[in-house]
């Protein structure tokens, strides 16, 4: 078929007019058009350069420049999310921190003996059985309210064991019977350390109450550690059953703990201290807690302008099995921070003056995307059980307590109670010890998920402590000082205090330099864009307009050409498929007409007889020869008159 005149003109115009942008039929022509019209010099030199060597050289230079740009821009992006640390020092009047003080012995042993009668009895029996240590019979009468009604039975279930390393045989404390210890019951993290020539170690075995075959034997390198751990295990069981009001009375009051108090050169008393009950340390007292709405401050550094207190420790009333050291624990912290005395408390000793100098530092880190910290802890899926400002320790302890309640059905005694839960004790939860030890093992190995969930706080306050110790009171002043303090305590003059019952504590600012450490973005958005522009101009002589041009050509135009080519191929394929279907349909019709004809079934050639037997169509009548029209048989001549010679014949 001849080409239409309009199409010929269009094709001629396309050949004569220059190719522009996405009108190019191929990607190679688009790239050539771009190189001839772009503002970047390297690409144009690739096209206009003559000679293969020079063209290859310009290609290498251009690609090298592009690689350098990508490398430098990647470095700029990575540095954009970095932070620089700045330290600012200010000299000003500083708020004094909260100082929490606890006696190392949580409760008066004289008041606790009636609750710990059975436990102390079993502990003394273990010392006598395993180490030959005997003590006079206890003269303490058991209380009518027997808090240890089921204690003996429970001590039989979890007794102390003396394990022989080589024979792997254990001797029970309560019954004295020996039994074979299978290898599977040994705690896999226990390290057996023999002391001297003895091959025996002390430990205790915990088994799952629901499955007696699930057991773990906890062994210790020293009998002291084994007995203390076993004692604390049963001690928490007993304390979990005593109401809080009774435990507060069993612990030390402010009058018992505090003898003298000075702050900033002025006298202070128990009214400046706030009591809170710690599960492991009993009654603790916080100076300058801020609960009254006022936070004390100091305007001068030095020991004379800080907090000075004399503490009454009362060593004679210590629990001999629960604690083995004498003194007090203190912690310096912010008013909104919970004091984790058991984790980061500082111990002060008796018969000594302990001076603690402080340096105040306030730190703040940038949150995401610069670091993985949290501002307030609201984005952490762990409930804060301490009602204090968020910290990493609060999150970890709260997470473990939550897992304890979910796994064991009760809460661990050393941490606050979640809503609707109660502390574990062997009367209501006989399986909690085994569950607790297994869960704590997972927590230490970071298999519980708490370390992955909890994050550091972005802002926090820190007091760096410098501790110095001096003998107190001195030998020459010991006599009169102890007499005066005994008088202040209200005791008789003939019974003066012992210096091992007293501890002198001084907490003060060494200077009033407030150090503020903060993280600032190393690069702002303006600096980042400026650096990008410098790299593009240095290596490619390119600007923002060139970048837009690159995006248009290499992404938009290239994509449109590729899509157009694919669309044309698809149309061509579809039209060819339609033509193929039409031709196939015609061929099938012809073939069907031939094969369905009954005359074609016979292998012989058709005859006149077989042709008459062909079936007739249903809708059309049978084609037959029409009858003759007799009028047509009349001979009509073109002559008007008959010839004479034919007249005679017609008459005949």
UniProtKB/TrEMBL annotation:
Top-level taxonomic group: Eukaryota
GO cellular component: apical plasma membrane; sodium channel complex
Transmembrane segments annotated in the record for this chain: 56-81
Keywords per UniProt: Cell membrane, Disulfide bond, Ion channel, Ion transport, Membrane, Sodium, Sodium channel, Sodium transport, Transmembrane, Transmembrane helix, Transport
Entry's localization field: Apical cell membrane
Molecular functions (GO terms): ligand-gated sodium channel activity
Gene3D superfamilies membership: Acid-sensing ion channels like domains, YojJ-like
Membrane-protein topology: Multi-pass membrane protein
Catalyzed reactions per annotation: Na(+)(in) = Na(+)(out)
Family the entry assigns: Belongs to the amiloride-sensitive sodium channel (TC 1.A.6) family. SCNN1G subfamily.
PANTHER family: AMILORIDE-SENSITIVE SODIUM CHANNEL SUBUNIT GAMMA, AMILORIDE-SENSITIVE SODIUM CHANNEL-RELATED
UniProt name for this protein: SCNNG protein
Gene label: Scnn1g
């Amino acid at each position: 078929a001849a080409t239409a005149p309009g199409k010929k003109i269009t094709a001629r115009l396309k050949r004569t007019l220059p190719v522009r942008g996405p009108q190019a039929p191929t990607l190679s022509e688009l790239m050539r058009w771009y190189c001839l019209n772009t503002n970047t010099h390297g690409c144009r030199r690739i096209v206009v350069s003559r000679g293969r060597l020079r063209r290859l050289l310009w290609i290498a230079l251009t690609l090298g420049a592009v690689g350098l740009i990508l490398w430098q821009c990647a470095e700029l992006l990575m540095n954009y999310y970095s932070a620089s640390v700045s330290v600012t020092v200010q000299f000003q009047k500083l708020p004094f921190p909260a100082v929490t003080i606890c006696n190392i012995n949580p409760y008066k042993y004289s008041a606790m003996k009636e609750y710990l009668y059975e436990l102390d009895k079993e502990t003394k029996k273990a010392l006598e059985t395993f180490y030959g240590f005997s003590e006079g019979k206890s003269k303490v009468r058991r209380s009518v309210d027997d808090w240890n009604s089921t204690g003996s039975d429970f001590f039989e279930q979890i007794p102390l064991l003396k394990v022989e390393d080589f024979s792997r045989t254990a001797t029970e404390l309560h019954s004295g019977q020996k039994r074979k210890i299978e290898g599977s019951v040994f705690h896999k993290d226990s390290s057996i350390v023999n002391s001297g020539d003895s091959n025996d170690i002390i430990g205790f075995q915990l088994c799952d109450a629901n499955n007696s075959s699930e057991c773990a034997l906890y062994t210790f390198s020293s009998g002291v550690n084994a007995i203390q751990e076993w004692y604390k295990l049963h001690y928490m069981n007993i304390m979990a059953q005593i109401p809080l009001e009774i435990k507060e009375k069993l612990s030390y009051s402010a009058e018992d703990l505090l003898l003298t108090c000075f702050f900033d050169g002025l006298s202070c008393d128990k009214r400046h201290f706030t009591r809170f009950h710690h599960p492991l340390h009993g009654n603790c007292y916080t100076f300058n807690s801020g609960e009254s709405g006022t936070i004390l401050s100091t305007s001068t550094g030095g020991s004379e302008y800080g907090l000075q207190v004399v503490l009454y420790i009362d060593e004679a009333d210590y629990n001999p099995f629960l604690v083995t050291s004498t003194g007090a624990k203190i912690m310096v912290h912010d008013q909104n921070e919970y004091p984790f005395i058991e984790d980061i408390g500082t111990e002060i000793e008796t018969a000594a003056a302990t001076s603690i100098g402080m340096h105040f530092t306030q730190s703040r880190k940038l949150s995401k995307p610069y670091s993985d910290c949290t501002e307030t802890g609201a984005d952490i899926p762990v409930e804060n059980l301490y009602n204090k400002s968020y910290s990493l320790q609060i999150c970890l302890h709260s997470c473990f307590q939550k897992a304890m309640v979910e796994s064991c059905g009760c809460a661990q005694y050393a941490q606050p109670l979640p809503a609707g839960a109660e502390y574990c004790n062997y009367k209501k939860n006989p399986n909690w010890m085994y569950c607790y030890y297994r869960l704590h093992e997972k927590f230490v190995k970071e298999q519980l998920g708490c370390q992955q969930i909890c994050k550091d706080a972005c802002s926090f306050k820190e007091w760096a402590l410098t501790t110095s110790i001096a003998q107190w009171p001195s030998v020459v002043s010991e006599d009169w000082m102890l007499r005066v303090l005994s008088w202040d305590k209200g005791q008789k003059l003939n019974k003066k205090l012992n210096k091992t019952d007293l501890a002198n504590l001084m907490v003060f600012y060494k200077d009033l330099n407030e150090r503020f450490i903060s993280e600032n973005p190393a690069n702002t958005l303006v600096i980042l864009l400026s650096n990008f522009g410098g790299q593009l101009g240095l290596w490619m002589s390119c600007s923002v307009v060139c970048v837009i041009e690159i995006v248009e050509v290499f992404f938009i135009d290239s994509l449109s050409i590729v899509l157009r080519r694919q669309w044309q191929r698809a149309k061509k394929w579809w039209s060819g498929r339609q033509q193929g279907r039409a031709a196939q349909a015609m061929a099938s019709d012809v073939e069907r007409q031939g094969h369905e004809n009954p005359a074609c079934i016979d292998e012989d050639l058709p005859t006149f007889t077989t042709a008459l037997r062909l079936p007739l169509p249903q809708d059309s009548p049978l084609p037959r020869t029409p009858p003759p029209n007799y009028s047509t048989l009349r001979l009509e001549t073109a002559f008007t008159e008959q010839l004479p010679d034919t007249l005679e014949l017609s008459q005949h």
